[in-house]
Each structure stands twice: as C-alpha cells, then as structure tokens.
Design a protein that fits this description.
Layout (H helix, E strand, L loop, with lengths): L13 H5 L11 H14 L6 H4 L22 H19 L10 H6 L39 H7 L6 H31 L4 H27 L2 H21 L4 H29 L5 H30 L2 H19 L21 H14 L1 H30 L8 H4 L3 H19 L1 H20 L1 H11 L4 H7 L4 H31 L5 H30 L1 H22 L11
Helix pairs in contact: 2-4, 7-10, 7-11, 7-12, 8-10, 8-13, 8-21, 9-10, 9-12, 10-21, 11-16, 11-20, 13-21, 14-17, 14-20, 14-21, 14-22, 16-17, 16-20, 17-20, 17-22, 19-20, 21-22
C-alpha cells in the first residue's frame, strides 16, 4: 500500500503549478469558500474551459475591458474552477475523496491564489454594452438593441398626416378648383357671345401669352423672394380680380383682360408652388408627393369644370360662379399661411452673385435643362404632351360637332373618363418608376399618348375593325348607355390618353425637382413652362384653321406625328453619355 503522503507539498509537480494564478488574490476564509461553492452548485453553469479559467495573466482589476455579453452566471465560472482546485489537488495526492467543506488549514494555504468571491445572486444584472465585438457571444433577441423605427415608420405613414403637406395640398386643390371653374365660365361666356371659332383661339392665346412674356421673369422672382408671402399675395390678387367680375359683369374685352391677368398671376404661382413641394417633402418621398399634388389637380378639375361651373351656370347667373371662385382663392390664401417653408438664406442677394447680368440669370434655367440629358429628354416629353393637350382644347368642340354629331357643350362629359386614366397613372407612376426608371416612364408614356391621339383620327376605321372583324358588342353597349358608338370609343380612348399624360407629368416634374439645384428650381420650371407655351402657340392658332381646311381627324393624326417627331429630335440632340441604361 503506498504511503499516505508520497509527494511532498513543497515539491508539487509542474502541471498543478501551471494552473495557479500568478497574481495573488485576497485570502478567503473557509466559510466564504463554502458559500462560494454552494452558490456555484445552485446556479450550475456550464464548466468553463481550462484555457479560459486556468491561465489568468493579470489581476482582474487591471485587465482591459472586454466587450462581452455578461450574464448573472458568467462571473461564477472561474470561481467554481478555482474553488475546487485545492480539493482536487489533495485528492490527487492522497488518493481519497476530498471533503466538500475542506479542512481549515488546507484551504487557508491553498486558496491564497483563489479568485475573489463572486457577487451575491441578488445583485443586479450588469448592463449590456451597446456593441458586441465577439461574434461568438451568446446573444438573445431580447438583448439586441432595438433599431430606430423612425425612418421606416415615416415612409409607411401617409403624407397627409403632415400638417404642412396637408395645408399645401388643400390650398392647391382649392386654387385649381377656382381657376378651372373660372376659366370654364369665361369660355362659356365667349362661346355664348359670338358664333365665330376665332374668338375661341383668341381665348386660348390669352392663356399662352402671359407664359411667354412673364415665364422667365417669374422664375427669377420665385428664386429671389420668400415663397410663402409670395403665394399669399398672388392668391389675394386673384381674389381681387375675380371680385371685380362679381361687381360688374364683363364684356368680351373684359373677359380677355381677366384671362390675361389670371394667367399672368399663374406664371408666378406655379413655379413657387412646385418649388415649395420640394421643400416640404423628403427627397425619398418626392415621387409620392408629386403624384398627390397632381391628384389634387385632377380632382380639382373634375370638381370645378364638371360639377361646380356647369351647375352654377345652368341654375344661376355667372356672378354666383365668380363669387364662389373668389371665396376659394381667399381660403387658399389663408391655408398657405399655415405652411412652414425652409426659405433659403440670402435669397434677396441671389441675383447679385451672378456677374453676367439679368440676361444670364433669365437663361440659366435653359442652360441647366439643356446641360442634363435626362432632364432635357423628360422636359421634351412633358412639353410635347402640353402641346398636344393645348391643340386638343381647340379641336375637341369641333370634333364633337362634326364627328360625333353632338353639341359642343358635351365636350367635358365625353372626355371625362380621361380622369380615370389620370388617377390610375398617379397611382402607378411610383411603381413604374422603380422598375423602368422615371426617364423611360416619361418616354413610354409619351408614345402611348401619341397613339391615343392618333386613334381619334382613325376612329371610323377602328369602329369597323372592332365590330365587323372582331364582332365586339360596341354598338349594343353604346345603345344600352344611350350613347353614339363613336362617342363611346372616344370615351374609351380618352382613358389611356389621360393615363399617359399623368405618368409623363409626374415623372418629368419629379426628375426636374431631383436634378435641379434648389436655388435654380424656379427658373428651370419657368423655362419649361415658357418653352411649352412657345411650342403650343403656333399649333394652337393653326389648329382651328387646319380643322376647317383639312378636317379634324387629319389634324389629330398630324398632332400625334408632331409629338413623336419632337421627342425623336430631343433624343438625337441630347446624345451625351447617360448613366441610365435602357431597360431590358
């Protein structure tokens, strides 16, 4: 039988000595060691690896802080290993099982290197660090820091929940309702006062001349003046002009003068309003903001032109219509006061920073537009749509009389389904822009618009093809709706025309706001309006004459051909390198 103590404690083998910490720790009493071991057994954590617990190099107080996820049981792992070290060494040397409590003498000499007593189980859980450097740390879902949901939640919420945007949207809606109803009422007065179609062209020209004369100066003024006071002042001027119509019924010359004044004010109001939209809507939601802004325009046109103006003109005198329009302009001015706009600092000194003079300032919008190939192309698409719509305004009443054999007063009702296409386009443009890119949405939309206009020129052939070749029940549906078959086809083709004009307008204006410097937005928007009105001036004046000489159907075909030719020239002129690729 081997001796009870064959190995002298002073000559302990090297392996056990390697497990001892080099830095001495405070002495512990047997009672503290017993309490430490009992607390460790109660928690029962996983046994720590020898590499982690048996080779402490430095004092724990002097160790650099390690970013780990600490739990209530983690500090007890090294304590369990160190507390049992004397007992294990005694058992290895004597071959007997060491008692759980240990003798007072042995632990007192062997536990000099033991770790400090663990914290009480009742102690608070240590705080979780903000970052975790160890990828292998045991992290639970509850311990991860919560991400800031402000940006995603802001994108999910509607823009109408923003009081500033809501006030802007309602003011735009009221202004467009008033202006649409006012222009419709003045046009009806012109038609009732004379039987010549020349006065209709003069009325349309009165809406184009202010854009040519005041377009660029208006853009400069918008960039140089505070926008909110400017919008309020312009609405008050509209209120005063319309109030004069209420006091005194206008003659034919007064109608043309009022039209010139209202559209002159509009040249200043439109770029200021568009620039305001870019200041109150975040950049990542600008497409949605522009779509909602155009939605206000569509709904306002339906309310003002289809509902308010016809009803008031049939049930009362034009003075009641003018009074309603004046009240709407005044209400819009009050709503604009609630808009909070971040104005540019030093706007009044903007023009003094350009040494080239006023001419360079006026043409800066044109240079910015032409210098960007993408901006130039979408601007060309928007201009082509505007020219086509201006020409259609002149020929639409003639088209209803000569082709559809119906009264010109029904023009609004025949083309009313175009509003359905506009609404669909406003909703679909943000999604189409994600898949195809806004530039190509504008180009494809222009092609669809041209095809829709050309369809009005081949309406008889299309009716024959659908009824005689494909045996579609066009005539039966038209009889059920008590409509002429050709009128039904015009209503159907007006839906894609409205859809195309909608997506082109939203895509073009969004790209303009995104790619134009803030201090030049008013000038760029005014330049686009000027180019569009200059381009529409000649077709508008010649549309009525061409309809009498060539026929209204051929005029529709010519308009479609001019639209496609214009956008083709714009693409060949701006063949500079563009990062956007053609979608597959």
């Amino acid at each position: 039988m081997p001796p009870e103590h064959p190995i002298d404690p002073e000559n302990t083998p090297k392996p056990p000595r390697k497990r001892k910490p080099r830095t001495p720790a405070p002495e512990t009493t047997p009672a503290e060691a017993t309490a430490s071991e009992s607390a460790t057994e109660a928690v029962k954590p996983k046994r720590a690896s020898t590499k982690t617990t048996s080779k402490p190099k430095k004092d724990p107080a002097s160790r650099p802080a390690r970013t780990t996820i600490a739990k209530s049981s983690t500090p007890k792992k090294p304590v369990k290993s160190e507390a049992r070290t004397p007992a294990k060494q005694t058992a290895a040397s004597s071959g007997k099982k060491a008692p759980s409590s240990g003798k007072p003498a042995a632990p007192r000499t062997r536990t000099k290197t033991a770790a400090p007593a663990p914290p009480s189980p009742t102690d608070a859980k240590p705080p979780i660090p903000a970052t975790v450097d160890l990828p292998s740390s045991p992290i639970s879902v509850a311990e991860l820091p919560e991400s800031d949901p402000a940006i995603p939640e802001a994108e999910k919420t509607s823009l109408f929940e923003d009081p500033t945007f809501f006030a802007f949207w309602v003011s735009r809606f009221l202004v467009q309702v008033a202006q649409g109803a006012l222009m419709y009422g003045l046009l009806v007065l012109v038609v009732d006062s004379t039987d010549s179609s020349v006065y209709n062209s003069i009325f349309v020209v009165c809406s184009v001349i202010p854009a040519i004369v005041f377009g660029l100066p208006a853009g400069v003024a918008v960039d140089a003046l505070p926008r909110r006071p400017l919008l309020v002042m312009l609405n008050l001027l509209r209120f005063l002009f319309v109030l004069a119509l209420v006091v005194r019924p206008p003659a034919l010359a007064g109608i043309f003068a009022t039209t010139l004044a209202i559209w002159m004010i509009h040249q200043f109001y439109a770029p200021a309003e568009s620039s305001t939209l870019a200041s109150i809507v975040p950049g990542n939601r600008l497409v949605n903001g522009q779509a909602l802004s155009n939605l206000a325009l569509v709904i306002a046109q339906a309310v003002g032109v289809i509902a308010i103006a016809p009803i008031l003109l049939k049930t009362s005198s034009p003075q009641y219509l003018f009074a309603v329009c004046a009240a709407l302009f005044l209400t819009a001015a009050g709503l604009v006061l609630q808009i909070r706009i971040g104005e540019l600092r030093g706007q009044m000194a903007q023009m003094s920073r350009h040494p080239d003079g006023i001419l360079s300032t006026l043409l800066r919008g044109l240079r910015v537009t032409v210098g960007d190939s993408t901006l130039f192309r979408v601007t060309a698409a928007d201009v082509m749509v505007g020219i086509g719509l201006s020409a259609l305004v002149v020929v639409a009443p003639i088209y209803l009389k000569r082709i559809l054999n119906t009264a010109s007063e029904n023009t609004v009702f025949v083309f009313a389904p175009a509003a359905i296409g506009v609404l669909i386009g406003l909703r679909a443009t943000p999604y189409l822009g994600k898949y195809f890119g806004l530039k190509w949405v504008a180009v494809y939309g222009l092609a669809l618009f041209a095809l829709s206009i050309a369809a009005f020129g081949f309406l008889g052939d299309i009716h024959w093809l659908l009824v005689d070749t494909f045996n579609l029940p066009i005539d039966r549906v038209a009889n059920a709706l008590r409509l002429p078959p050709l009128a039904l086809l015009v209503m159907l083709f007006s839906i894609p025309a409205g859809f195309a004009s909608s997506i082109v307008g939203v895509a073009s204006r969004t790209i303009t706001l995104e790619r134009t410097p803030l201090q030049f937005r008013g000038q760029v928007i005014a330049t686009q309006s000027l180019v569009q009105n200059l381009g529409a001036l000649v077709p508008t004046m010649l549309a009525g004459i061409a309809a009498d000489q060539l026929g209204v159907e051929r005029v529709a075909i010519i308009i479609a051909m001019l639209i496609m030719a214009g956008i083709s020239v714009a693409f060949f002129v701006s063949r500079s390198p563009d990062p956007d690729a053609v979608p597959a």
